[in-house]
Amino acid sequence: QCTYLEVEQAEHTHAVVLSRPAWLWGAEMGANEHGVCVGNEGVWTREPLGEDEALLGMDLVRLGLERGSSAREALEVMTALLERYGQGGSCKEEPVPFVYHNTFLLADRTEAWVLETAGRYWAAQRITGELALGVLGALGAVCPCQPPADPSVAEGSRNISNQLSIGSEITAEHAGLRQRARSQGWWSGHGEFSFAQVFSLEQQPPRMEAAKARFRAGRELLRQHAGHITAETLMSILRDKGSGICVDAEGFRTAGSMVSVLPRDPALPCVHFFTATPDPSRSVFKPFVFVAGIKPVPQVRSPTFLQDPAKQIPRFQSSVDRRHELYRWHQAALELMEQDQERGQKLLETLQELEKQGLEGMKALLEGTETPHPEELADLFFDCVEAELKFYT
């Protein structure tokens, strides 16, 4: 059972960690036990929006992670389900439908892809080369691979925002993609075929104009750090408010943020940093590692409701408080930061020190200078959340 419809079950699913809107089944971004990371952004295209309930792009994120043991396999899962079931339905917990198509970033230890969609149609671009992949979206989905230790290995990066970005560099595509473009008069059938050019709206929604600036800014920030992109680099980019990457205006605020370190050496663990709270500029990135016996973290799980307005038909006729415990305390801390700048600054510095400790611990783990006991890694995310809560309470 996905957000709106059922799909056939798979024989086997992988363990996943997800950052998601609490009312739906899918996820904005996440990772699985095999080091696959997927994140999505909304886009508007020439294909009509499907208000009929189908798969959400966020459902596809989770389905790809649960069923794909590599980025390429996740891509194949997502495109097959997209072609079969389509995408559609409201992406927001409000009575007035808010519908969009999706662009995705997929990465694992060895390769990365951008997947972009327009209705049931899609195009995918494999990010070539020996990459340290820095991937960021308008709302902060990030999946970077740690730069290789060998300085002779080339490094590359790729970002997305709320717009189509695959031009003629198409690695794989829907079998009927070009015929669809010709039949609609969007492409003559001759010369270069650019997915973004052919399927983008001629008159973009106002929010898409801001996406162009975010896309350019993200690309430029990654370029400035070329050759030395680290987890800290990506965190700083996600916190950049001047570029609009970190959103905190006009009724929108960046929700959860994620940065993943994916070592090429399979003997080393992947480390996934999550804020689990909004506005990364005032949040703590906390490390998570897949190991056996992971300790549950109820402080970052949203409550469930017997009479859930997202599941009753008609949907979204009332609202409920879905904030988890850490979210509620974090919001109170944000208010403190705004009301008492001196106390707020001290709290922020304390939180930054907590994050620094987590980063240093994970660096030691990845460099092999420390070998934590498996139980320590199983409790890692729980302990970091508990430590953050203590500073708030």
Automatic annotation (TrEMBL):
One biological process term in Gene Ontology: proteolysis
Pfam families named in the record: Peptidase_C69
Gene3D superfamilies assigned to the protein according to its UniProt record, in alphabetical order: Penicillin V Acylase, Chain A
UniProt GO molecular function: cysteine-type exopeptidase activity; dipeptidase activity
InterPro entries registered for this protein in UniProt: Peptidase_C69
Family: Belongs to the peptidase C69 family. Secernin subfamily.
Protein name as annotated: Secernin-2
